[in-house]
Amino acid sequence: MATVDAESGKAAAVAAEPTPPVSGGRGGFSGADVALRALLFAVTLAGLVVLATAKQTVLFPVPLLGVAVPMPAKFKDSPAFIYLLVALCVTCLYSLLTAVGKLVSGSSASTAKNIFLLLLLDVLYAAVMASATGSAGGVAWIGLKGNSHTRWNKICDAYGNFCRHIGSSVFLSLIASIILVLLAAINAHSLYRRSR
Amino acid sequence: MATVDAESGKAAAVAAEPTPPVSGGRGGFSGADVALRALLFAVTLAGLVVLATAKQTVLFPVPLLGVAVPMPAKFKDSPAFIYLLVALCVTCLYSLLTAVGKLVSGSSASTAKNIFLLLLLDVLYAAVMASATGSAGGVAWIGLKGNSHTRWNKICDAYGNFCRHIGSSVFLSLIASIILVLLAAINAHSLYRRSR
Fold it and tell me: Region Disordered: start and end of each range (chains A, B) (predicted)?
């Protein structure tokens, strides 16, 4: 009878704890997850500051009148850059909230449901961030190279400082998009390991 | 002894088959997955055709010379539209391959590993498609509205047909991006149901 109890007890233990090696691996990935979220916060905040401070005024001389007209350039001039600012803002807030949430709740909150919900949000934010990066990048490219077919002149030869700000912000947004895809992959891997 | 065997057998059966209700639900989601992939194929193919046929030549009169100069507009004029074409091409191929693969292999191939890999690819393609949509959308918006600050004139008043093609293609790409995010969500849900 003792053998019986031991055996059925063992079986019950196996049923109650189906994937013991996962939790160790999950811990490691959870650390990478929090670190990536902290990095995402830093990158989006930097992108936000760089974009918001993209402002330059250039004096264009008007030979006929003998005066110089100030022509300012700021990120608000293009809807694509406003979209990028909004995307960076919400992603920055999202990364802060999820990183703090993960740190406060610890490993107790890393249930399958929470990982699934985080994965959905990561995918959504990755898509929004990627589209904003593409949109601002497309406009910035015209500013840098111009388009002879449509006679859109490049402006970066005159507005060098402004363009450096915009370019840096687009680059940081690209990094943020890649981090979000990585975060989605990490969460997907966590779910995958639990499902095996 | 017979009772013992029955009990341990029952426990073993529970351990071997941890989530019996999942497979039925998975079948339903797998059908939605294939249907969405077929829709994705149709949408990206339509977007591809509409973008590739975006070509219009407008005659601009030159009053001084008394002649009209033909000015063609085609999607190759902007790197953003070339990027969109490439993104639509690879997504179209990807949707075809995965839809056919799912149909041929049936439910036997829907292992956790395959779902995980498909989820990763879906997220990657969603990000690429979203960035291409944003990029082309940003340039198309300048073509439609112009930008008075940088003196980029709108061209859609002259090239109406060309702009309709580009606009339709960008809209179809947006639909494709949303479908890819939905596919990622469905695969994530499959993994989540298996992990419970």
Answer: 1-25
